Amino acid sequence: MPKIKCIISYDGTHFHGYQVQPKKRTVQGELERVLEKIHKGEHVRVQASGRTDTGVHSRGQTIHFDTALDIPGNSWKKALNALLPDDLYVTHSEVASSDFHARYSVVEKEYRYFIINAVEPDIFNRNYMYHFPYKLNIDAIKEACHYLEGTHDFTTFSSAKATVKGDKVRTLFEVSCNQNGEKLEFVFRGSGFLYNMVRILIGTLLDVGQGKIRPEEMAAILESKDRSNAGKTAPAQGLFLWRVRYE
Prior knowledge:
Radius of gyration: 19 Å
CATH superfamily of the largest domain: Pseudouridine synthase I, catalytic domain, C-terminal subdomain
Largest sheet: 10 strands, mixed
Shape: globular
């Protein structure tokens, strides 16, 4: 049975996250609804590289599903997009190898977080950027980013609601902050991420930018493995799952 791999983009504003939930509109729910239609009523389970929360967006979520239909890999893009809603789009489709798994084959994920650091809000970007009107020391934020790179136990930066079993050791290959006028773009590239990890990291880095935490304190905050030592969880709308990389 062929395995189809797709890269999808979605605007998370009107989705209750990625994962199927009863009586709620989700990304997985929309995908499986459309696949069921294409498969004449047969339910098709979709696997993803990971879940995103309500309001979180994606430019590069990766999914896979098994199908008995004889449709060329690159034709699934057109077939799915013809039936999907306007805020969910398949950017690429192909036949994957039999041992490919959208979640377990991941070697690197990249998230980006966008902030508008201005007194006045940008109402046209309110669903895609976090409006943060307070003065920030960008150099201090950049210095703090370096302490987060490498392999660490990120328990401090994991939501108390997390259900992850096993250790919370992850490797971050890049943590960076780039400023373009009033807009800030944070890049997080890593082997994997914990529940709400990026949003908690953002909240903590904003505390550094405001002088509430010194950059060099990040090492001790990491080592404490105590969520209460980190900053607030930043809002969902600034977060994008940007890219997922496989071997």
